[in-house]
Amino acid sequence: MNFDVGFGQYYEAKSPIHKLDPRTKLLFVIVYIVAIFLARDVYAFIPLTALILFSIIISRVPIRVILKGLKPLIFIILFTAILNVFWTNGTNVIFQKEIIQGHWTLTLYREGLINAGILALRITLLLMATTLFFSYTTTPIALTDGIESALSPLKLIKIPIHEFAMMMTIALRFIPTLTEETSKIMNAQKARGADFSSGGLIKKAKALIPIIIPLFVSAFRRADELATAMECRCYRGGKGRTKMRIMKMRFRDFLWILIIAGLLAGVILINIYGNGYRL
Amino acid sequence: MPIIELKDVCFRYGKKSPYEIRALDKINLEIEENTITGLIGHTGSGKSTLVQMFNGLLKPESGSVIVDGENIWAKPKEIGKVRFKVGMVMQYPEYQLFAETVKDDIAYGPKNMKLSEEEINRRVARSIEFCGLTPDILEKSPFDLSGGQKRRVALAGVMAMEPKILVLDEPAAGLDPKGRREILGGIKKYREKSGTTVIIVSHSMEDMAMYCDRVVVMSNSKILANGTCREVFSNHQLLFDAGLDVPEITNIILALRRSGVEIPDDIYTVDGALSAILKLKGGNNEL
Fold first, then answer.
1. At residue B38, does pLDDT exceed 80?
2. Which chain A residues are closer than 8 Å to B96 by Cβ?
3. How many CB pairs under 8 A join A and B?
4. Helix A22-38 crosses helix A110-130 at what angle (to 10 degrees)?
5. Would you write out chain A's pLDDT as a tens digit for each of its 279 residues?
6. Does B49 touch chain A if contact means CB atoms closer than 8 Å?
7. B171 touching A, CB under 8 A?
8. How would DSSP label each residue in B186-206?
9. Going from the N-terminus, what domains does chain B have, and what CATH number goes with each?
10. pLDDT for residue B283
């Protein structure tokens, strides 16, 4: 079993992006995603791509690391792109062939190819932005702190934001612990002759019982122990709780907000005045 | 002929990544049949990695592992068979219990070996006896038992596979002194009756001195010493240098020697110390 996913993989480095306030990053990524999907003129993708490449360069996260994080999703990107090639109607036919006589004709339009390319680019940019700003340059703790702070106005309508953030922090914290636990249990059952790879689907599913049950038992045990430990340290929810790291917006944060606002404005302007191919 | 033979075994974790750790460095080791071998070493010395080589849970990067005359990695697809020959009890084995009843849990290994119903029942009955459990426990849920009982059920689950070699990683960790004695004593009795070769990983020098025939010392991914208890425990300086200790009783003997008492320095059990002290007192064994 391989748990090697891009999410939650912090890449330690000193860079302006690492130093940004997590709330700035949240705002930046949300506006960026909106801009990606607002863009209707192909030329609008030039500043969009340029900005993310610029961010990657100054973040000091090697491009190879970012590409590795995209690797598991290549199939989804290609699949949606290929579907788009054949499901778009247009006027410039490149290729036509009747597959089932009189019923189904496969037609390839120039528009279809461009649309598919743009779609693949959109998904790639979206993934690059989210992984770069949320995974590689922000620790999960900082991210949940940022989310908590950004959502704190909802406390006014009695939504327990702090509790949600705490749950998220704990869940993230226990991913590596449970991964390690799983491999230990798997080894123990393998030592007792368990076989996880042969047999049909039902047999394989049944072979997982000796792993899942001990894993659940230990997850509950850990939850219990953690709750006791938190109570011993007088945890009483968010009220009156202070933070060790106090987030503060600095000059660079406002600079980045300005950059992303400029990008959004630019994309809208290109949409209105641009003369490139339009989606 | 040794029952386990390791030749030039090397292993690294996180190969070719910034987190690469060398765990085993050209290990050569022979384990003789029908002995209890103790494996000691400080945390991170490579003990747990080494025992996972014996049953093919880890594959050496280079070198070979020969169990019972066969290179276990000659046919990588049949590595599962080695695990029936080399039974392994991991650290804190009570966390691997899963079945509805104790009986089903102990029978899990033998069932994977595709044994007949009667044979499985015979083995379950035999293994709980070795582990000091009574048959009335068989129909209980393993999650209702006490910590010590769970540990023994997990141990019985591996013993029921009747492996030729039994490897135990810290079998007595976290148990009270009575629990330790019962588990380790049970293992010793089991070995005497079944002729199984036993390998125990432990931090406790006293346990090693009391239950093992031979001791292997690991330090920094290498084997530092390998010999009988007397040979290893009389080499005090070597153990201290490796960040380990000698049994408490040996420390007392060493302190006596430092204060001028003429007593041999290769004593590592309480009984050995008693007879040496009595000898000093005047040659008779009466107090």
1. yes
2. 185, 188-189, 210, 214
3. 55
4. 180
5. 334 444 457 888 899 999 999 999 999 999 999 999 999 889 999 999 999 999 999 999 998 888 888 888 899 899 988 888 877 777 777 777 777 777 777 778 888 888 899 999 999 999 999 999 988 999 888 888 899 899 989 988 988 888 888 898 898 888 888 988 999 999 999 999 888 877 788 888 888 999 999 999 999 999 999 999 999 998 888 777 888 888 888 999 999 999 999 999 999 999 998 887 777
6. no
7. no
8. HHHHHHHHH--EEEEE-S-HH
9. 4-95+152-243 (3.40.50.300), 247-287 (no CATH)
10. 59
**Is residue B5 within a helix (H) or strand (E), and if so which, with residue range?**
strand B4-13
Which residues have CB under 8 Å from B183's CB, separation 6+?
A: B131, B151, B152, B155, B171, B172, B175
Of the candidates A190, A193, A214, which has its C-beta nearest B95's C-beta? A214
Rounded Cα gap, residues B146 and B158, in angstroms: 19
3-state secondary structure of B209: helix
d(CA A91, CA B56): 63
Q: Are A144 and A172 in contact (CB under 8 A)?
A: yes
Decide if B57 and A190 are in contact by the 8 Å CB cutoff: yes
Partner residues linked to B10 by β-bridges: B62
Q: Is the ipTM of this complex over 0.90?
A: no
Residues on chain A touching B89 (C-beta within 8 angstroms)? 191
Task: Give the pLDDT band (50/70/90) at residue B79.
Answer: confident
CB pair distance less than 8 Å for B109 and A209: no
- Partnered with residue A41 across adjacent β-strands are A278
As a whole number of angstroms, the distance between CA B105 and CA B111 comes to 10
Q: Indicate if the alpha-carbon torsion angle A157, A163, A167, A173 is positive or negative.
A: positive
- The answer to whether the CB atoms of A210 and B96 lie below 8 A apart is yes
Give the CA angle between residues B162, A211, A207 to the nearest 5°.
75
Phi, psi of B233 (to 5 degrees): -75, -15
- What is the radius of gyration, based on Cα positions, of chain B? 21
Residue B116: CB atoms within 10 A of its CB come to: 9
Rg (CA), chain A: 24
Are the beta carbons of A192 and B108 separated by less than 8 Å?
yes
